[in-house]
Amino acid sequence: MSGTLYIVSTPIGNYGDITLRALNILKIVDEVICEEFKEGRGLLKQYEIDKPLRRLSEHNEKKDSPQIIKELKEGKNFALITDCGTPVFADTGNYLIKEAISSNIKLVPVPGTSSIMSALVVAGIPIDKFIYYGFLSPKSDMRKKELLSIRREFPVVLMDTPYRLFTLLKDIMDILGSETYVILCMDLTTDTEEILRGRADEIMAKIKDREKKREFVLIIKPQTFTD
Fold it and tell me: How far apart (Å, rounded) are the C-alpha atoms in residues 5 and 107?
């Protein structure tokens, strides 16, 4: 009988945000598939869980997935986690999941913390419909074209690496206008959590002199929404 691949959401900053179900799954699986060994070990150590780890990154996912599928078919159970939050959105795992589906492997989502949803619920704008665009291109010209193509009748959720926040805000001001209303959520769920709302130029002015780079989610308010 084939095993099960659990897609397990983990905290995005506050270790108290893990679910009881996620903890139980991590305790009963044969092995945990992680994005980075350091983050995976730190997570398991925090909850005093002793399980072997297997690293799956963008560099080895296609090469190593067949072996994982083989072991799943033989009855082994795995938990797939990312460095933080809900797996697969901007992380490794899609290829493995696709292969598991093709092989009739049972997939079980174990929901939990998501930086996307955490940011949306404090945005203060209607979120019954929204666009998750994720990471824009790191190339300036392509990033500007993507911003131009974004539909503006719904809120747009963007993520990026901490060191590109200033560049992203500058591009938003250049392409969409400095008056564009944005919601910037930094270090969500941690002691340094900060949520800023306002025009893109106002937000830029508030953070431009800060040296520390912080994890963030940025939401662009739709042009059609009025207060």
Answer: 5
Rounded to 10 degrees, the C-alpha dihedral 174/116/125/127 comes to 120
Give 224's pLDDT tier (boundaries 50, 70, 90). Answer: low
Cβ atoms of residues 160 and 168 within 8 Å: yes
Running DSSP on this structure, what letter comes out for residue 48?
A: T
The runs of H, that is alpha helices, within 123-195 are: 140-149, 165-176
On whether the CB atoms of residues 110 and 36 are closer than 8 A, the answer is no
pLDDT band at residue 90 under the 50/70/90 scheme: confident
pLDDT surpasses 60 at 227: no
Give Cβ neighbours of residue 41 (< 8 Å, ≥ 6 apart). 53
How far is Cα 114 from Cα 193, in angstroms, rounded to an integer? 15
Angle at 28 between CA 42 and CA 45, to 5 degrees: 15
How far is it, in rounded angstroms, from Cα 163 to Cα 161? 6
- If DSSP codes are grouped into helix, strand and coil, which group holds residue 111? coil
All residues at 6 or more sequence positions from 37 whose CB lies less than 8 Å from its CB, including other chains = 53, 55
